[in-house]
Structures are given as C-alpha cells and as structure tokens.
Amino acid sequence: MKLVTAVIKPFKLDDVREALSEIGIQGITVTEVKGFGRQKGHTELYRGAEYVVDFLPKIKLEVAVSSEQVDQVIEAITGAANTGKIGDGKIFVSTLEEIIRIRTGERGTDAI
C-alpha cells in the first residue's frame, strides 16, 4: 500500500480529481497549503505598492492506493496537473504500513 501525495496549482484541482475518478480512485484528501520551490515566490502590486509574496497558494492531495495502482495514479496526476510552467508541483510516494477503516475495522487494502 502506498500514499501518493501531490502538491499542485489550485486551479488544477478539478482536472486532477476528474482524472483520478476516471481510473477508479474513490477517495482523496485535499488541503489548502502555501509554499514555494524553485520559483521562490513572486512580487505583486497592491494599491501602488510592490510587495514580495514568499509563499504561494498550493493544493496538497493525499491518496492511499494499492501498490499496483501507483503508476496509474502518478500518470493521472501528472497528465492533469501539467501546465508546462514552473510551479506545476511535485508528487511524493511513500509506503503505508497499515490502513484501518474506523467504521468497520477493515484493515489493509480492504480499508482503502
């Protein structure tokens, strides 16, 4: 079992959600986050004053999947979130030791 975590641009959330639905992913967790990578933020103008925005708004998605689904999930996220511009985001894959569904007590891939 794997946890796929993706940090993407906010306006790409619906595209990524649809792409994941098409491959049969039923549940995702979405969090609004702020951060920066190589972009190092940007400058904006507000009422004539220029100021630096260090942390840019991003969306963090978390998807628990079976090991067999990881490549499909990565392809779906990459395809849907890609704009070809800096700041498209990152995907992280980590191993999950155990998953437990609270309501039923199911464990492992049955709990996904």
Give the N-to-C terminal Cα separation.
9 Å
Stretches where pLDDT falls below 50 for ≥5 residues? none
Approximate helicity band: 10-25%
Structural category: alpha+beta
Q: What is the number of independent domains?
A: 1
| Secondary structure tally, helices | 2
How big a fraction of the residues is strand?
35-45%
**How would you write the strand order of the largest sheet?**
2-5-1-6
Family: Belongs to the P(II) protein family.
GO cellular component, one term: cytosol
Pfam family, one: P-II
Modified residues (O-UMP-tyrosine): 51
Task: Explain what the structure shows.
The chain is α+β, with helices and mostly antiparallel strands. The chain has one domain (2-111): Alpha-Beta Plaits, CATH 3.30.70. The chain is built from two helices and six strands. It has helices spanning 13-22, 70-81, and strands at residues 2-8, 29-35, 42-46, 49-53, 56-65, 89-95. The strands form two sheets. It has a four-stranded antiparallel β-sheet with strand order 2-5-1-6, with helices on one face. A two-stranded antiparallel ribbon has the order 3-4. Helix 1 (13-22) runs antiparallel to helix 2. It is elongated, with a radius of gyration of 17 Å. The protein starts with a strand and ends in a 17-residue tail after the last strand. The modification O-UMP-tyrosine is found at residue 51. Belongs to the P(II) protein family. Keywords: Nucleotide-binding, Phosphoprotein.
Feature tags:
alpha+beta, elongated, two-stranded antiparallel ribbon, Alpha-Beta Plaits, four-stranded antiparallel beta sheet, 112 residues, N-reg_PII, N-reg_PII_urydylation_site, phosphoprotein, 2 helices, nucleotide-binding, ATP binding
